[in-house]
Amino acid sequence: MNAAAISAHIEPIRHEYAEGRSLILPALKYAQTEKGHLTREDIEAVAEATGFSAAYVESVASFYDRLYLQPTGQRVVSVCVTLSCMLRGSDELMERICDRAGVSHHGGTSEDGMITVQEAQCLGYCDHAPAVQVDAEQTRGPLTLDDADALVDELRTSPRPDELWR
Amino acid sequence: MADYAPVDLTAEGQVEFELNGRRVSAPAGTMLVDAAYALGVEVPIFCYEPRLGAPIGACRMCLVEIEGMRGLQTACSTPVQPDMVVRTNSDIAKDGQDGVLEFLLENHPLDCPVCDKGGECPLQDRTFRFGPGRTRFVEAKRHFPKPLDLSSVIALDRERCISCYRCVRFSQDVAEDKALVMQERGAAAEIATLTGDQYEGRFTGNVIDICPVGALTSIPYRFTARPWDVTNTPSICGHDATGTNVELTLREGHVARVTARPEPNYAVEEGWLSDLSRFAYEGNRAPDRLTAPLIRDDGRVKEASLDDAVDAAALVLGRGGRVGILVGPTATVEEGFLAQELARTALGGARIQRLGIPGAGLDAIRSQPRAELGDIDGAGLVVIVGGDPPNQQSIVELRVRKARRRGAAVITVGPRPHALEPVGTAVRSEPGRLAAAIAALDLPEAASTIVLWDEADLAAEPDAAGALARIVGDRGASQIELGADVNGAGLRALGLGAGDVLEAAAAGEIDTLLTIHADPLDGPGAADWGWALGRVRARIAIAAYASAVTDASTVVIPAATHYETDGVYVSMTGRAQRLRPGATAPAGAAPGWELLIALAHRLGAPPPYRSAARAFAAAAAARPALAGLDYDVIGVLGAPVAAVTPVSPNGVNGPREAAGTGLPLVTTTRIFGNAAAHRSEALASVRTGAELVLNPAEGERLGIADGARARLRSPHGECILAVRLAADHPAGAAFATTGVPGAGVERLLPADRGPVNVEIEAP
Ligand code: SF4
Ligand code: SF4
Ligand code: FES
Ligand code: FES
């Protein structure tokens, strides 16, 4: 994404942030919607749009799990492994999703490039444990193991959203 | 390094408090760590480094107990308060220190036997003195494939990093290159640049000095020595005119490393070195170093012993011809003085000059009150006139940036773009029209003003120098000369002029030439010098490196470099400082002062001294500018030479009209584009060459494309350069890089570096 597009996104919300530095996060999130991850060019564009050095912008991006500096699958499934979900079977859920997606039990990206599975910490959806999040769009739960298979199959066949908010 | 800030325990406004049961006092506002250190109590630290700005409390190493405050406090970020009761060695304080060290070591490899920091490692030392004897950590530590090259000179062993943020703060807040950051988080945190980039800049090596562990180490020095195999000697950098204080690490007779001194000189470099100062030492053993005396006889060259070479030199000089002596810009005060003594006694009637800028119109500005580099960051207004300090007097850049951070207004005016322009308000002057630009300056009110002015630029425009002197005088400001030559100020203090020998040689009045660290054929006016020296019949060269001069000299006597000799350099701010030998000269070479004393003996006029110290004392006794100085007075940190007697700024005339036709030539310099940088292998990947930079409009007008080559011709000489078109350079001038060995831009210039125009065409 280029700097002009990023500026157009952050300028209207600039007044909401006391420090210009804080705009780096919304800028990065928006830049990521294009490809689903951030390239060096994206980092440099965010740097230009926010006025901070590219190295600093990259350091911010590297701090957050949901900002991706490596390519991901078309859709990202984050499986909550924190306490409530764990007690309600997140281990098995994670394994099942990984198996269905065809990746190792630690998570990863499926060979067809469609799905990335990763562990996540509490999604704030404990009352629906065990929960997963698809991109940053929808949080679902509680999921049975059959639901898990259905979820993976559904994501495989659904079209890629225009903007990849994760 | 300079871990604790200096504290003046006698200053006004002391605060009384209790430290480990003792009633003590320190100036209000002093951080507790600094006060304690000044009072003889060491509180261990890692992240605290007063030169990096306000403390950030990142490492928690400095925990102390303060009565009435809950929990332990970080002494690095707690200012002394009246009647506070502080304990640094109570059980609870010690428990805190133990805990922090144990925590820092949990993920630390402790591979001291193969770590380059071993033996001079604050983490090692402080663990030993303050830490727990054993760890309870049994889990796996983090590992990284090791090491990573942060740049061609800095290695990064990530697992040793204790995340103190010192290097990051240096890059972000001191050099302001914004390149070093902490990436990832928690146990995965690591120091990095933007992925794929190297850490490159003018000051990068400083992070090696300030890293409190072996995470950042010097690639050229890695695995060369252990601290107990070396000796360290305080000396002065001989690669620019700033007088940067350095420490030379000596191993087996060679300079193995150059670092900042553990106790910085706060009036000069404040413990920050440019990468040129730090890494140029490798050139001390470059292939073009002269190591054996040579005698040329009828076109045959034979090696000789030092004794025989000095004999031969005395024979040639004593033949009775008219002698000219050239003293180069890196010669020490002692060498300059001994050369003058030769001309006064043994070689009575000899002409002598230094190689440098005559600067006839600079007396008025030079006689205004001088400031030290350390005064810059306290100024309210900093004005930079001409030059390119980041490339030529690099550490000035850090001072100016610091002044700006502290709220100073910065104004630059000059003909060429440079890295300090974006720091403040930049005014672009037309080439040769500095006076007009200075007259048009609208300077804001300020409690204190420091004017930095470029020697070469203002020497070429005496009217601008006069105007500037008036402004400095009217405002009650002080001034700093951005000097062009390493020891230019020292040689001027001796009263050496810069034109006599050239004039005489051009008139055919020199038969024998003695050069001392002088390469007239490679410097400004090279073409004019070549023509004038064509009539000289015999040449004697005392030099450290081979050059066009030594290639054609009857006798070549290898000299010690500034790394290998005693001597005094006077910095551009008028500070006399001592060189101390950190290395031994090659077997076939000797310090210049020794060679000159030997020559005087052979010529029958032995001086009454045999040491550099006594030679300097004699110079100080004979020259008013050096009055009162000797090696003891100069000491470790230097002492000022006498102020220049006031000269009225009225009566300097100008502007000097540029010779020749075509575009005005604006010379530029690059920190890694000079002989010293080109000689050093460590700087191989950052060194730069010469180029002609033109505004794209000029390129179009001249029909010269970006990347093409062009021939430049002035009334003095010509050269061929690669062309770069750059919109940030104004039209109406030709910007050419000087100082690059072999590029020949110096041939375009007159010997006094005065203004010239150049014709540009495709070759
Ligand atoms: S950084 Fe210090 S403590 Fe750590 S391995 Fe190196 S020498 Fe040992
Ligand atoms: S690399 Fe050294 S200076 Fe930089 S944060 Fe780590 S320990 Fe501190
Ligand atoms: S623990 Fe899984 S959503 Fe809170
Ligand atoms: S030295 Fe005080 S917190 Fe690091």
Q: Segments of chain B where pLDDT lies below 50 for 5+ residues?
A: none
Main β-sheet of chain A: number of strands, strand sense, barrel status? Answer: 5 strands, mixed
At CATH level 2, the architecture of the largest domain in chain A is: 3-Layer(aba) Sandwich
- Tally of DSSP β-strands of chain B: 34
Q: Number of DSSP strands of chain A?
A: 5
**Coarse structural class of chain B:** alpha/beta
Q: Average the pLDDT over all residues of chain A and give the rounded result.
A: 94
> Which descriptor suits the 3D outline of chain A?
elongated
Strand order of the largest sheet of chain B: 15-14-25-24-23-16-17
Task: Classify the beta-strand content of chain A into a percent band.
Answer: 5-15%
What is the 3D form of chain B?
Answer: globular
Write down the Rg of chain A: 17 Å
Could you tell me the CATH topology label of the largest domain in chain B. Rossmann fold
What does the main sheet of chain B amount to?
7 strands, mixed
Describe this structure in words.
The complex is a heterodimer of chains A (166) and B (763). Chain A has two domains: 3-63, Arc Repressor Mutant, subunit A (Orthogonal Bundle), CATH 1.10.10; 75-161, Glutaredoxin, CATH 3.40.30.10. Helices cover 43% and strands 12% of the residues of chain A. Chain A contains seven helices and five strands, in the order H-H-H-H-E-H-H-E-E-E-E-H. Chain A has helices at residues 3-10, 24-35, 40-50, 54-63, 83-87, 90-101, 145-157; strands spanning 75-80, 108-109, 115-120, 132-134, 138-140. Chain A has a five-stranded mixed sheet. In chain A, helix 1 crosses helix 2 and helix 3 packs across helix 4 (54-63). The longest helix of chain A has 13 residues, at 145-157. Chain A is elongated and about 50 Å long. Chain B is of the alpha/beta class and 763 residues long. Chain B folds into five domains: 14-104, Ubiquitin-like (UB roll); 142-285, Alpha-Beta Plaits; 294-356 and 490-640, Rossmann fold (3-Layer(aba) Sandwich), CATH 3.40.50.740; 363-484, Dimethylsulfoxide Reductase, domain 2; 663-761, Beta Barrel (Barwin-like endoglucanases). Chain B is built from 24 helices and 34 strands. Chain B has a seven-stranded mixed sheet with strand order 15-14-25-24-23-16-17, sandwiched between helices. Chain B starts with 13 loop residues before the first strand and ends with a strand. At the A-B interface, helix 4 of A face strand 8 of B. Bound molecules: iron/sulfur cluster (SF4) (2 copies) and FE2/S2 (inorganic) cluster (2 copies).
